């Protein structure tokens, strides 16, 4: 996602100066405009409500307590209806100014920027990364803390990550070597259970379907949809949002195949722009994991255990072959079941353990549910096939390391052994790297035969455009601390009644 483009662009002629302590500049991402506001009624007349909002506070919610207002806000966010579409720039705090009351805050999500530089503003100096942070923590009282994880795991070359699926093929892969490799492991749902411990984890399904240890393990970074934040961790009395190393995100149901992983404000409607900081919702955990991995900086994903189909068991295949029904690899389970039943084969509906191969862990679904699951896997495989151009534009490479996966028809297949060799060449083998002499000898650590290197600044690199450089923090003097504290004192408008 490009975060360098300003959310709202203002020219000097359209920028409204702050004329008093009670006046604010309303910047609208929806209409790309700026207007001065000094009262709640002016805000309501200028701010456009969110379209297609299934839940709104009724009249009894208008001027109630802050607790009820916060509950209203939480309900709207749970529905995914809120975004930072309006920014109020001003010298005083929003709450103390009284511009927004309980009647407004449940319907609009507004950022308040205290700024004295509004006069002559061109362009607006806040970008989407600051106003629409994709990931955040949530507290049990609904408080949010934004987490700047975008591209955090990118590097000088394409960074890779294992995507661990729950298919039965995972037991046949060298999971011990995968676990020991210097790439993170991103597990989906119950994938990897009993075989490896993930670095990252996400799930689309309800909280109660997963292990307590996953939520409470601080070594696993968990990416969870906002709507699960207030669920109770299975087997405990604590909320999911209180779990260690847990990150939340919003879902976006408006993503198409053309803009998967690469939403652009230049071609989207205002409604689509409002969800730029959200994860694709195609009702699938693998799609969710791919988008999250891309958002945090990974550009090569190795899909292990992602069979993307439910295969009939050996006994079923043999029984069908005896009556002249041949099974084709990766065909729809529904079609094979239909041909089998037409030849008189009856399968136990409530005992699918011997009839289908579903997961690498100890769990199974009834046959009818397994058929629907196979259809879902097929649909998701087609989603990814139809999104290949968008994946390429976003710089994302999907590599299947799962033998027999439906994805192998549309994406490159590479054996796990070949991937491990590639990782060892590009990153190294941590278990076999020598340490002798690193502390005691002066060693040349650059590659042999390397030509000269020298650091240059970019051409036309002016001081005003140069990125901030890392500096050693200097403790301010007492006078500097006093001056800074005085500068941060907020101005408060005091109404004065005059007669005559």
Task: Give a quick rundown of the structure.
This protein is of the alpha/beta class. The protein has helices at 40-46, 66-78, 94-97, 128-131, 175-180, 212-216, 270-273, 285-295, 314-322, 333-342, 367-386, 388-393, 416-426, 478-487, and strands at residues 24-28, 33-37, 84-90, 109-114, 135-138, 144-147, 160-164, 185-188, 200-202, 221-225, 246-252, 278-280, 300-304, 311-312, 356-357, 397-400, 412-413. The chain is globular.
Set out the fold topology.
Blueprint: E1 24-28, E2 33-37, H1 40-46, H2 66-78, E3 84-90, H3 94-97, E4 109-114, H4 128-131, E5 135-138, E6 144-147, E7 160-164, H5 175-180, E8 185-188, E9 200-202, H6 212-216, E10 221-225, E11 246-252, H7 270-273, E12 278-280, H8 285-295, E13 300-304, E14 311-312, H9 314-322, H10 333-342, E15 356-357, H11 367-386, H12 388-393, E16 397-400, E17 412-413, H13 416-426, H14 478-487
Parallel strand pairs: 3-4, 7-8, 7-13, 8-9, 9-10, 10-11, 11-12, 13-16, 16-17
Antiparallel strand pairs: 1-2, 1-3, 5-6, 14-15
